[in-house]
């Protein structure tokens, strides 16, 4: 996902453009908004590691499965354009979200693994509803960096996934184009899998990934 590695720089450029040229470009910036959000998110998913035997047990599979859940608080930056009843935007989570470490002991082997969700980016549409509320529909992309210390010696490459968001929000407009929002949303992500970089007989899969977020956002419309 190298195409998304410069998201912070792109959003920073947008911010500087808006702040530095708003007087000279008032017509161009009309309907354009920028803002920040404080998000409390919770996620869950199911993980499975499959290890195929070696030697005389090449058809025998050792499968370990476990469900997990975690929560985290992160800030986000967003920029959007109001087209009338619909606002189109991009939101970038300005921080990593890391799962707790999962440790298990098998005979004399200790395995520890965790994952970090990085560069979470969403493209979304806010659709106006009555009473200053809105429906949010989004498409999101995220990198998943695995951090494992496995007694088996296995290493897994980072992977990426995408998914969809649906949410509801309330938008309160204030003076000078400022606004305050309260928002709740639900997320789903596609399943991911990775094969060990040192032993192709070992594979991990993460499925049934879901999440929910409650957010407070503040911004300015030009």
Descriptive notes:
It is a single chain. This protein is 9% helix and 67% strand. A hairpin with a 6-residue loop joins β10 (192-195) and β11 (202-221). The model is unreliable at 1-5, 15-19 and 21-27 (pLDDT under 50). The longest helix is centred in the first third of the chain and has 15 residues, at 7-21. It has helices spanning 7-21, 26-29; strands at 32-52, 61-82, 86-93, 97-98, 102-106, 109-129, 133-150, 159-173, 178-189, 192-195, 202-221. The protein has 2 helices and 11 strands. It is elongated and about 65 Å long. It has a single domain (2-221), classed as Porin (Beta Barrel). With 222 residues, it is mainly beta. An 8-stranded antiparallel beta barrel has the order 1-2-3-6-7-8-9-11.
List keywords for this structure.
222 residues, mainly beta, Porin, 2 helices, disordered N terminus
Mind sketching the topology for me?
Blueprint: H1 7-21, H2 26-29, E1 32-52, E2 61-82, E3 86-93, E4 97-98, E5 102-106, E6 109-129, E7 133-150, E8 159-173, E9 178-189, E10 192-195, E11 202-221
Antiparallel strand pairs: 1-2, 1-11, 2-3, 3-6, 4-6, 5-6, 6-7, 7-8, 8-9, 9-11, 10-11
């Amino acid at each position: 996902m190298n195409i998304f590695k410069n998201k912070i720089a792109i959003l920073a450029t947008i911010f500087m453009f808006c702040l530095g040229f708003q007087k000279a470009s008032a017509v161009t910036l009309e309907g354009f908004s920028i803002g920040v959000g404080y998000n409390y998110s919770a996620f869950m998913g199911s993980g499975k590691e499959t290890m195929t035997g070696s030697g005389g047990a090449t058809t025998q599979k050792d499968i370990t499965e476990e469900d997990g859940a975690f929560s985290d608080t992160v800030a986000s930056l967003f920029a959007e354009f109001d087209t009338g009843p619909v606002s189109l935007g991009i939101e970038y989570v300005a921080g990593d979200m890391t799962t707790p470490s999962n440790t298990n002991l098998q005979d004399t082997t200790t395995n520890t693994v965790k994952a970090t969700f990085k560069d979470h980016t969403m493209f979304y549409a806010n659709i106006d509803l009555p009473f200053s509320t809105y429906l949010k529909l989004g498409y999101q992309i995220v990198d998943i960096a695995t951090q494992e210390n496995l007694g088996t010696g296995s290493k897994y490459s980072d992977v990426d996934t995408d998914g969809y968001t649906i949410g509801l929000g309330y938008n309160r407009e204030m003076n000078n184009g400022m606004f305050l929002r309260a928002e709740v949303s639900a997320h789903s992500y596609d399943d991911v899998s990775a094969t060990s970089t040192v032993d192709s007989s070992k594979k991990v899969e993460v499925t049934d990934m879901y999440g929910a977020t409650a957010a407070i956002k503040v911004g300015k419309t030009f």
